[in-house]
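We recall that each integer encodes one residue's backbone shape. We quote one record:
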Amino acid sequence: MRVPVPLGSAAVGAVACLAGLLFVVSASDAPAGRRPQDMVEFVVTKAEQVEQQAAAVDALRSEVDALTAAVADLPGPASPAVQVAAGSVAVTGPGLVVTLDDAPATAARDDLDPDVLVVHQQDLQAVVNALWAGGAEAVAVQDQRIVATTSVQCVGNVLRLGGRVYSPPYTVAGIGDPAALRAALDDSPAVRAYQTDAQAVGLGWSVRTDDALVLPAYSGATGLVHAQAPPGTDVLGIVGEGP
């Protein structure tokens, strides 16, 4: 329980359904409790280069879409549902926006571990997982769409996501039935633990409904380094399937 403590993407559709699962796995690997990741020295120094590469990816995506449509002997384009799940198209619809923030500097006390006063990687993962569990069709953290290959990392008290670095406050947006998404947040033990600390030490926490959320298409790399389809899986056949 999270409480203040004393000191001391050829087959995009084939992997789309893994988006939520990979977040769960990532969360399960996070250390117990709300502790920062010991990666301060890992802070990114090439953020501008990443921004340029993201723009180039967007341009290349348009070329790929045009070329794919022109090749008649390949499977047809993925169904709209698969495209949404894969993050390859922008989406709009009703949903929730959750905001998390570090506690103010005035919340520091001699009897509190400073770690409890900041938003950690596992807090963001808990919110993302809860939204997936609540039936979210698409999720974004800050201005980036979450897909199967997304990795959320906290470096000290800043967020590293898709090669970019963000400082709090952090926003997590999910498109889906707002009532179901709220219920999923309420049912998450990890989210409730964060809320407990929010009330105790002043961590930022807010949830609002938006009837017309707009989440961008994913613009990062989709290559898998550690994941692969099981032997014998007809990946192209899966991609070609659709309603």
